[in-house]
Amino acid sequence: MAFEPKSSNLTLPVLPLDGEVVLPGMVVPLDLTDGEVRAAVEAAQAAHSGSATGKPRVLLVPRVDGKYAAVGALGTVEQVGRLSDGDPGAVIKGRSRVRIGSGTTGPGAALWVEGTLVEEPAPQEAPGTVADLMKEYKALATSWLRKRGAWQVVDRVQQIDDLGQLADNSGYSPFLSVEQRVELLETADPVARLKLATQWLRDHLAEQDVAETIRKDVQEGMEKQQREFLLRQQLEAVRKELAELNGDPDNETDDYRARVESADLPEKVREAALKEVEKLERSSDASPEGSWIRTWLDTVLELPWNTTTEDTYDVAGARAVLDADHSGLSDVKERITEYLAVRKRRADRGLGVVGGRRGGAVLALVGPPGVGKTSLGESVARAMGRKFVRVALGGVRDEAEIRGHRRTYVGALPGRIVRAIKEAGSMNPVVLLDEVDKVGSDYRGDPAAALLEVLDPAQNHTFRDHYLEVELDLSDVVFLATANVLEAIPEPLLDRMELVRLDGYTEDEKVVIARDHLLPRQLERAGLAADEVSLDEEALRRLAGEYTREAGVRNLERTVARILRKVAARHELGDQELPFAVGADDLRALIGRPHHVPEAAQDPEERRTAVPGVATGLAVTGAGGDVLYIEASLADPETGGSGLQLTGQLGDVMKESAQIALSFLRSRGAELELPVGDLKERGVHLHVPAGAVPKDGPSAGVTMTTALASLLSGRRVRTDVAMTGEVSLTGRVLPIGGVKQKLLAAHRAGITTVVIPKRNEADLDDVPAEVLDVLDVHPVSDVRQVLKLALEPAEADTSAEEFPIAA
Ligand SMILES: Nc1ncnc2c1ncn2[C@@H]1O[C@H](COP(=O)(O)OP(=O)(O)OP(=O)(O)O)[C@@H](O)[C@H]1O
C-alpha cells in the first residue's frame, strides 16, 4: 500500500469505552467508579511510577455491544481527582491511533494488550484539494456551531490547520453515532477521514433545516389555534354582554319553535322543520349554520303549504273573460276553452290532470314576440279565478335555477318553481313558463330535465327542490309555456306539451286590437280621457303598416303611447286643443316619417330589385315572418376565380341550397337559354342581407335560383313577387314550413304576388281570408314556373322573345 504506516509496538492496559470514542487530540473526563476504568488507570499509574518523564499511558478502546474495536487510541492520564459531581475521576487525552493486537491479563486487574502505533500517512491529494476540503469542513462546522451559539468553539476550529487534527476534532460532534466515531477512529488516512466528517456534518445540517421548517409550521399552526380560541372566548364574552343588555338571548330560537308549531304545515314538513329548530337551538348564534337554518326556516314558513284558491269558473264565463281580454285569436281561445272544459270536468269527477306523453297537461303558446302569449296566460288565470305567476326561463342553463341549490352551498336558494309558488301565495296558481325555447344546458346540468319532472303529472305531486328538501305538491298547478321558435324547444319537453300557435296578426286585426285594447290602455297611462284624444282607423292602419312592421303588436302599442304622450305634452304647453281626433295625416307632425315604406311604393330606381340578380324571399325568424332579399353577382373573370362564395351568416342547410341552385343552373341553364358558360368560368357570390343576422333553412332555394337566373339573363325580378320553397337538383319545388307567417309578412311588406310550393296549398286554409283576398298566390311544383313568373321580360334591346320555359 502506498501509505503503509510506520509502526512500533507497545503493550498497555486497556481502558474500555462503552458508548464512547476518544479520538486523538480529544480530552475527556472519565469516571473512576467504573471498575474496569479504574483498573486500567491504576495499572497505568503503577507501570509509570518511577519514570520521570511522560504520563501514565492507557489504550482507549471503544467497545460496541461487548466487542472491542480493531483500532483504539493511545491515551495519557492527564490528571486524577474529583469530577464536578464529586466522584473520583481522571482526565484523559487521546494521542494517536493504535491497532489492537493480542491481549493478556495482568499485572493487576487490568487487561493488557499489545498494540501497534499507527502513523498517520501523508495525504496523497494535491495540497489545493486538501485546503479546499478543510475550508469546506470549517465553513460547515462554523455554521453549525453558530446555530448552537458555541462561539468560542468556532474560533478553535478555525485555528486548527492540521488536516488529521481537524478531522479528529469532529469526534466532539454530539450528533455522530458511536459507529460513526469508531469509523473515524479506524480510518487512518486523514483525507478520507475528513471527507467522512464533512459528509456527515452536511447531512446533519440538511436534516436540521427540514426539522426547522417543520417546527416552524407546527408552531405557526399552534399560534393560529390559540389566537382563534382567544378570539372565540372574547366573542362569547361580547355576546353575553349584549344579551344582558337586550334581554333574553334565546328569544329568537324560541320564536322559531313557536312559529313552526303554530304554522299550518303538512305533517312531514312540520317534522322536518322541527328537526331544524332543534339543530338551531343546539348551534351557537354566531355559527354560520345557524344563519342557514334560519333562512331555510323562513322559506319553509313563507310557502303557502295549505293555501289554495277556490276555482270560480264556469266554462262560458271563462270564455267571456278570454274574449274580453283579447281580440281575434278565435282558434287559440277555442283551444284554451277546450282545455279548461276538460280540466273542469275531470276535477268535478275527482279525477287528476290528464298526463303522460302528448297528454296535453301543459299548453304551450308558440309564436313571435308581442302576439299576446304572456297576456293570454294572465287571461287564463283570470278566467279560472287563480293567481298568476310568470317564470322567465330565457337564458337559464343551470339545473339549480329550476330545482334549487343544495343547502350546503354558500348563498343557496330554492329554485324558481318554489319561488314562484311562494310569490303566488297559493298551491294552485297558473304558472307561465316563459320562453321554454331558450333554456340551454351545460356542465351545470340540464334544466330541461328538471322542467320535465315539474311538468309530469306522474311525478310532480312529490317535487323535490334541492334546497327545500321536503316534497312539494305541484299537481294542482296549471302550467302554461311560451316559446318563440318551436324547433328550439327541447324535444322531451315538447313531447309533454299541447301546442297552440299564434302566427301574428294581419293589418286589420292589428287595427282592431289597437282600437279596442291598446289605445284605451295607453290613454289611461297618459292620463287622458277616452273622449279627449282618439286615433281614427286610417291613422291606426298607417301605424301598423308603415310605422311598424312586426308580427305582433308590441311596437304598435309603443308607437300609440308615443303619440299620446306627445299630444298630452302639447296640450299642457298650450299648443293643442282637446279633444283631438288624430288622423293619418297628423302622424308625420307628431312622430316623424314612417320607417317602413313598401318596396312597391319606392321610386323604381331605389327598389332592391332594380338591378338583375336580386330576388325577394320569404322567411320565418324568431320575430315572425319576414321578407329577405338574396343578391347574386359574378366574380371578375381576371381576379375572381371560380367556385361559390356565400356571405350573410348562412347556416349549413342554406349553404347547401345555394350549391343546389348553382348545380341546377349549370346542368339545366342551357335549356333555359341562360349563358351558363359564365357560371363555369367565373366565381359566383351569393349574399343575404342583413349580413349580421344568422339565417338557415332550405326554403330560400327558389329565391337563390331566381336571383342567379336573373343575374345570368340580365332580366330583373319583379318587385311585387316574393317566393318560398326548397329546390331539388332536378328543379322540383319541395314543401316548406311557416306558410301563414310568410304570407302575413309578404302582406305587411306590400307584396302582391307570392309563389309557394304546390304541396303547401293546404296550409292556405290557415291564412286569414283578408290576406288571401289581396295576395295573388301561385302554388308551383317546378322552379321553371317560378322563373317564368318572377323574371321581368328582357329589356327591349336584348331581345323581345319570350323566355322559353319547359314546364
Ligand atoms: N289579440 C290581442 N288582443 C289584445 N291585446 C293583445 C293581443 N295580442 C297582443 N296584445 C297585447 O300586446 C302586448 C304584447 O303581448 P305579450 O307581452 O303578451 O306578447 P308575448 O307574445 O308574450 O311576447 P314575448 O314573446 O316577447 O313575451 C300585450 O300588452 C298584449 O295585451
Automatic annotation (TrEMBL):
Keywords: ATP-binding, Cytoplasm, Hydrolase, Nucleotide-binding, Protease, Serine protease, Stress response. Its EC number is 3.4.21.53. Coiled coil: none annotated. Residues 609-793 form the Lon proteolytic domain. The keyword Protease applies. GO terms for cellular component: cytoplasm. It is an enzyme of class 3 (hydrolase). InterPro entries: AAA+_ATPase, ATPase_AAA_core, Lon_bac, Lon_bac/euk-typ, Lon_lid, Lon_proteolytic, Lon_Prtase, Lon_prtase_N. The keyword Translocase does not apply. PANTHER family: ATP DEPENDENT LON PROTEASE FAMILY MEMBER (PTHR10046). It is found in: Cytoplasm. Residues 12-205 form the Lon N-terminal domain. Homohexamer. Organized in a ring with a central cavity. Belongs to the peptidase S16 family. Induction: By heat shock. ATP-dependent serine protease that mediates the selective degradation of mutant and abnormal proteins as well as certain short-lived regulatory proteins. Required for cellular homeostasis and for survival from DNA damage and developmental changes induced by stress. Degrades polypeptides processively to yield small peptide fragments that are 5 to 10 amino acids long. Binds to DNA in a double-stranded, site-specific manner. One of its GO terms (molecular function) is sequence-specific DNA binding. SUPFAM superfamilies: P-loop containing nucleoside triphosphate hydrolases, PUA domain-like, Ribosomal protein S5 domain 2-like. One of its GO terms (biological process) is protein quality control for misfolded or incompletely synthesized proteins. This is Lon protease. Its main location: cytoplasm. ATP binds at residues 367-374. The gene is lon.
